[in-house]
Structure formats: structure tokens, C-alpha cells
């Protein structure tokens, strides 16, 4: 049977599609099934991933995979964190969201650290209600101004430790192999296969 990708974010659909490709699993997106976007009422990445996966499995009767993720800036106490999508506003404009991160950091003064990390929680939910969740992360630094248009979201302002290119500049295959999403996916595969 098919696996529902319980996300409405095209960047995630692309990346999760690439991660799943070697397994030959047939997928269908939440958008294609006309599934609604559930309200993210959780207070952790894992809770929000579970709520999205559970709703998609319940409504479709198919196994589902959901992703809740975000950028955590150490000097901002972990913000935007689970609010990463919401910082872009109704228009989902990530130039605005990145500017907001930059401005908040500037308010902290010139000595504020630029350390940041991305987190990704992946939840796999079966139609019988069984659910498993895996969390991954990647550590890096914030860059300014943003550079590159190959990724999505906050990618243009994130440089992984040891790299000089931003995630927005990296070859997508490379990003897919080192990202927080790849880290979570490796744990999922290790547990289930
Ligand atoms: P769904 O809930 O439908 O999956 P969403 O975009 O609302 O889509 P989230 O609530 O998990 O998803 O928000 C996470 C945000 O964090 C996302 O919109 C991106 O802007 C950002 N983000 C997550 N992973 C990222 C990545 O690999 N690169 C850049 N930004 C990322």
C-alpha cells in the first residue's frame, strides 16, 4: 500500500521523497488526498509530528509519515524552534522570517553567539494507531545576508559546522545526506528495517 506524506510543505515533500526513493515505497501527499492542515497545538517537535501523523492516518486509513522541524538559535533561547513556520507569517515569506531572526539576534548585541541547529522529528503512524517517532539534528552557525536558493525555509542563513556554503547553496543531494531530516530518517530506518 501507499504511505501518506503528512505535510503541506513542498520542500519537505522533496526531501522526504529523496530519502524514501531507495526503498521503492509508493507515496501520496496530504495535499493530493485533500487532507486538512491540522493545528499544531503541541509544545515539542515530537508532539506536533505525532499529531500530524495521527490525523493523516486516521483520515486516510493509510500509514503516514509526518515531519515537524525548525531552526533553534542558541542565543534566542531556542527560538524560533517549533514556531519556525509561524515566524514567516500568513504569506509564508521566509525572507521575513530570516530577517526576524537576524533582528532578534542584533538586539542581543555584537557578542551574541551565532550558533544554531535544525531539529527534525519524524513520526510514522500506522492505521491501527501504532506510532513511532525519531528525532534528528544538525549543528551550525547563522550567516548574514542569506545566500542560495536551492533549499527552502531558513536554508539560506544556515551553515553546517565544517562547511562554508549555506544549506541554500549546497547541492540538494548533499543537504539530504547531512540534514537534521536525514539524521532522523537514519534512526527511523535503523529501528524499522
Ligand atoms: P507541515 O506542517 O505541513 O509539514 P510546515 O512548513 O508548517 O509544514 P513545520 O511546522 O514543521 O512545517 O515548520 C517547520 C519550518 O521550519 C518550515 O516551514 C521551514 O521554514 C523550517 N525548516 C524545517 N526544515 C528545514 C530545512 O531543512 N531547511 C530550512 N528550513 C527548514
Automatic annotation (TrEMBL):
Cofactor(s) annotated in UniProt: Mg(2+)
Enzyme Commission number(s) of this protein: 3.6.1.66
Pfam families tied to this protein: Ham1p_like
Alphabetical keyword list: Hydrolase, Magnesium, Metal-binding, Nucleotide metabolism, Nucleotide-binding
Keyword Magnesium applies: yes
Active site (UniProt): 68 (proton acceptor)
Binding site for Mg(2+): 39, 68
GO molecular function: dITP diphosphatase activity; ITP diphosphatase activity; metal ion binding; nucleotide binding; ribonucleoside triphosphate phosphatase activity; XTP diphosphatase activity
Enzyme category, top tier: hydrolase
Catalytic activity: XTP + H2O = XMP + diphosphate + H(+); dITP + H2O = dIMP + diphosphate + H(+); ITP + H2O = IMP + diphosphate + H(+)
Keyword hit for Mitochondrion: no
GO cellular component, one term: cytosol
HAMAP family on file: Non_canon_purine_NTPase
Family of this protein: Belongs to the HAM1 NTPase family.
Protein name from the UniProt record: dITP/XTP pyrophosphatase
Species in which this protein is naturally found: Sphingomonas jatrophae
Amino acid at each position: 500500500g501507499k504511505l501518506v506524506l503528512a505535510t503541506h510543505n513542498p520542500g519537505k515533500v522533496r526531501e522526504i521523497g529523496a530519502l524514501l526513493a531507495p526503498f521503492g515505497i509508493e507515496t501520496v501527499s496530504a495535499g493530493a488526498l485533500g487532507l486538512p492542515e491540522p493545528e499544531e497545538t503541541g509544545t515539542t517537535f515530537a508532539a506536533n509530528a505525532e499529531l500530524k501523523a495521527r490525523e493523516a492516518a486516521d483520515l486516510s486509513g493509510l500509514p503516514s509519515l509526518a515531519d515537524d522541524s525548525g531552526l533553534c538559535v542558541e542565543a534566542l533561547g531556542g527560538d524560533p524552534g517549533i514556531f519556525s513556520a509561524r515566524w514567516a507569517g500568513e504569506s509564508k515569506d521566509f525572507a521575513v522570517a530570516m530577517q526576524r531572526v537576524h533582528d532578534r539576534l542584533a538586539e542581543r548585541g555584537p557578542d551574541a553567539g551565532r550558533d544554531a541547529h535544525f531539529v527534525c522529528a519524524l513520526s510514522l503512524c500506522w492505521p491501527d494507531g501504532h506510532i513511532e517517532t525519531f528525532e534528528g539534528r544538525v549543528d551550525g552557525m547563522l550567516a548574514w545576508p542569506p545566500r542560495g536558493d536551492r533549499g527552502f525555509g531558513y536554508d539560506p542563513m544556515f551553515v553546517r559546522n565544517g562547511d562554508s556554503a549555506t544549506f541554500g547553496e549546497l547541492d540538494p543531494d548533499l543537504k539530504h545526506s547531512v540534514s537534521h531530516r536525514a539524521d532522523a530518517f537514519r534512526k527511523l530506518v535503523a529501528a524499522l528495517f
